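for the record, two folds in this file. i put them one after another cuz i was lazy. first one right below, seq on top, structure tokens after. the second one comes after a little note so u can tell where it starts
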Amino acid sequence: MTFLDEISKDKQAVTLYKYNGNDIKVDSNLVEEKIDKKSDLIRICFVDLETTGTHKKNDFIIEIALKVIQINKYSGEQVKAIDAYESFQDPGVPIPKEASLINGITDEMVKDHEINWNRVNEILDISQLCVAHNASFDRAFLDRYSDNSKSKIWACSINDINWIEKGFTNFKLELLSHWHGFYYDSHRAMNDVNAMIHLVVHPHYAKDKPIIELINNARKFQSRMIVKFNYNEKLVSLIKSKRYMFNGSTKEWSKLIPEDELDNEKEWLASNIYDGIFSGLFEQVNLIDKYKDR
């Protein structure tokens, strides 16, 4: 990885520092500046959820964390934490053992806890953009409970940043963090939020910070490419390599494509999936509908 190569140089090992988010704590004395479309500033709400499982309609939220930062949308500097909220949620059903093994959250920890959705909506209301690491997952759960979530533009810190171009070939938050020289107590909602923010504004990037690429890509119109084919191990491997996601209900593979990349994607699919003739479907996606569950 390019960043690890740079910090390790001739050493045989790299020392990671533990990141705890102390540099992005909410300042209760901060006076909020007025922000409009002409402002150099933008407010971004970073979101993470822990859930009982991965089924977007049948599983439940058991922990939520949101943190709003204010940042210069052109330079990625002047980072200030404006507001934050975190809470457990009793799902009303036992938390599966598999989920607890991942996030460390038990039935006892969530018992009698309830998310204050009015507070969540207040935080979303002051934000111009919502961001999650794998936004389609977090948005699907949040949209079930919050109309404010449904009306926001969402961006994804996986798909809206070209990590490969920056030298990183895996997009898991923990691994990207390690490759940027830090670690954290993962799979707890606010810890993940803090790590996400630290990653996209990382001081390694003197310019061209990932957060700027994410903001710019959030403004771009995209199309959803939809691909169907009979099961074939080779084709599945190929389509996964292009970061398509599988929908078990519709048996479709799909991916959001910037409109200026659409023709290239169709050519790739024609050559690699469809025996020379493009046979997929694509549909334009409204900015507000990006990462919305289908």
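(here's the note) second protein begins now
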Amino acid sequence: MTAKISRFNRLLLILMVALYVISLGAFSYANWMVEREHLLWMFLVNALILSLPLVLFFGSIYVLLSAWHEHRLTGQISSRHAKIIHWAPRIAAMVIIFFIGLFSLDVFDMEAAPLELLAGFLIHNLPSIILILALVFAWRRPVIGFIAFLIAGLIFMRFVIFDLSLGHFLLFSGPLLLIAGLFFADWRWNKPQISAPLDAAA
């Protein structure tokens, strides 16, 4: 049983790494074709920034599928998987909030008064602020995280549906939906441990 789980995880990891490399290469090539005058260091910085949601996307798929496979075969998940399932959605949520927040920095490229820039910055950061609040409430109640990030992912899906954008799915809605899936797994699979009653004689 353990060998079967290990083999599945190894093949799944290879597949996820390959898909990550292909996706990053496709995004980087598209960026290079649009703005060939970019310096090498700018190209590398863009690739690093794009890696944040892509690692989150394919990493979340790996965690969910490996835990699901183990749960299906054994009826439960190991303590190692339980810890990963617990922390993965919280760390992933912080990463995607940071990534979404990066786009608000474009406001400072505009020519406007400082107060107008500040107002624009806050407006552009409304999605990040809402997600931060959702994460705060979800930290101890994963069901809240499941619902909040599911709604956020579905809201972002409108860009995928209307623009038929696979890139938008990989960078925004997909990671949000997978974070919702991780919170769901934490909620449903990580049952709280009931402490044994203290021995009255002790």
